[in-house]
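During the reporting period the student researcher (J.K.) took over the structure-prediction task from the postdoctoral fellow and processed the backlog of single-chain submissions. One of the processed entries is reproduced below for the supervisory committee.
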Amino acid sequence: MAQSYFAEKVGIDELQIESTDVMTGDRNRNRFLYYQLKGSMLKADRIDIIVSFLMESGVRLILKDLKAALERGAQIRILTGNYLGITQPSALYLIKKELGNRVDLRFYSDKNRSFHPKSYIFHCGNIGEIYIGSSNISKSALTSGIEWNYRFTSLDDEKNFSLFYDTFADLFNNHSFVIDDNELAIYSKNWHKPAVSKDLAKYDDAEEDAGFKVERLFQPRGAQIEALYALEDSRMEGAVKGLVQAATGVGKTYLAAFDSAKYERVLFVAHREEILKQAAITFQNVRNSDDYGFFNGKQKDTDKAVIFASVATLGRNEYLTEDFFLPDYFDYLVVDEFHHAVNEQYRRIVNYFRPRFMLGLTATPERMDGKNIYEICDYNVPYEISLKEAINKGILVPFHYYGIYDETDYSLFRLVKGHYEEKDLNGAYIGNAKRYDLIYKYYMKYRSKRALGFCCSKQHAEEMAKEFCKRGIESVAVYSDANGEFSEDRNRAIEKLKKREIKVIFSVDMFNEGGRHCFS
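J.K. obtained the following structure tokens:
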């Protein structure tokens, strides 16, 4: 899945915003609701918000203002709706994660009446101020979207201010329920991304062209916010280990980078160099620091804040000594592809180090050999999101799965540690014209535009790329230390696939684990 992981921080300190009671959005920043709300939040001692839905983009925009109000001693109440699922779970989790229980957050509860109010009420001493109009909490609605809102105070019209406020108080106290952790978990579990969200997100994305300064930051989003909240909650209960199970594409490496950002020294271990290189880029983006290094066959960094280590190297007894690392050197340990953690070298690493927290990441916790990975993380799984849930939440795209009958008799092959011998697979696949025809037939049948082919060996990948090229389907082979006739550098191959210069990549152990890429 392609993710930018960008949040947008609007810089307004240098802007001269005029006070107005009429906010209509569009291109005039003086008519943005957000800037007027910001001024009210700066002085209010009580803040009451009632909107039909909350979106992550809008919550992120006002989050610092709400936090500043809380730190000043203000009381905040928010009443929102859950009808049609437009309110995003990540928006609610963001509030809970950043503001905790200091905000009284509730869902409207009466299913027999529609709920479409949009109002922001502020109290400063004996004076009340209210904004009423069309803006829910989303970035576009609070900024340049065409939204009409009007402000008046209790000094202007005490009677009608009281009518609005009393109605809010009745709805909040008598027609709502608290969004506690249990309610939020249920809501998130059952949440399906509604079709209208696509349009709302499109408007939010367009805000960059609204003419105001934007600072790009790497921030968690969607399911990552939920997972971060769950991990922090788990640690507050005393957990020192945890496993996150999440489908490929949710962004587990970014999650690890976000969760470990407050820790001084981090160790990230994985079994493939490709995963380590990608992880290093991710952590560098999040931490905005060049203080990182590698511990592998070619490089032995021992004095960096973040170290990306190859299991095959670090897992050797000669390196798990105080000559290289003290057991408590790292505050935070990330074990990627945690389903491998039962293997001997992984266990050596896990048993040697004593971090303040260890995070395991996997998309596939079940092992073919039946070994139990959960005991390694104290049976603590703070967060999990299945492939189906990730699709329902709009994180991953839906897909069709077709099983194709293959006449190869795998019962004749030797199994070694749960895997077929490469020699046996090569013998069955390479030069098998019937199998080439079968794969090509179904590639054409399902009208593939771009595809990935997973191969058992370098020779197999080269042969498949050769066969497809012969049939007019531009293809390349991608594997480590690629030097074959049809091989291509991984990054170059991805770019070619994106640009449709090729149609198929046949790979060996490049995209089946730790994949952080997208082809649409």
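The committee noted the following: The two ends are 9 Å apart (CA to CA).
J.K. will present the remaining backlog at the next meeting.
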